Every structure is written in C-alpha cells, then in structure tokens.
Amino acid sequence: MSKKQLFSLEYPVRCSPTILYEFLATSSGLQEWFADKVDDHDGVFSFSWNGSEDTAEVVAHEEEHFIRFHWSHAPVEEFFEFAIEKSEVTNQTILVIKDFAEKRDIKDQSMLWDHQVKDLFHRLGN
C-alpha cells in the first residue's frame, strides 16, 4: 500500500470552462504550461521535461468538467486530476487539482503545482 495521500488545490480562474478544459485535456494545451513536450496516443500521454520522460493514461474524463490521469509507474489507486468547478456564491470558475504525495512532500508538491498553474494563468491571460 502506498504511503502517499491525496491532496487538493483550488485556483480561481478567469476564463470559460471550455477554454480551460482545452489546456487541461489536450496535448497541445498541456504543452503550453505543464511540460516541455506532450504527445497523446489513444489516451496515453507522453510528457517530457528537460530530457526526462513519463507517461500517463487518461482513466476518466468528462468534457469541460474533469480529466483524471494515472502515471504508468504509480500504484493503481493513485492519480492526478484537473477538475473545473463553478463557485455557487460568485459563479467563478475554479480549477481543482488533485494529486498524491507523501505527507512530508505535500508542501513541496503544492509549490510545484503553484508554479505550473502560474504558467497556465499566464497563457490564459489571467
């Protein structure tokens, strides 16, 4: 059993769910902010960063709502997910990222996501 635990991060976004989903669920969109190079073959995405490569399979998705990936090297119960929610109070679009990390690494992993999302927001003009 994995020692990693699930954690979630929320980011308010100023764009439509349709546009945001394209950046989260397509190889061209993910390549804009998530990795140096992204390829997609039948639901299996290859991500490259600074010469290293990893693959993740899309295990679940709903257009304009969420996409869940499973890293090829990770235990079956682990995933990372991008979800798009609407605040009922403000009607604002919220990007929710779910990921797994060991308890001692959650802060560092959250900072890494913050950095990645900052790049995404730059691309979106936020």
TrEMBL record:
Q: Which InterPro entries match?
A: START-like_dom_sf, START_2
Top-level taxonomic group: Bacteria
Q: Where is the START-like domain?
A: 1-125
* Protein's UniProt name: ATPase
> Where in this chain does the entry annotate a coiled-coil region?
none
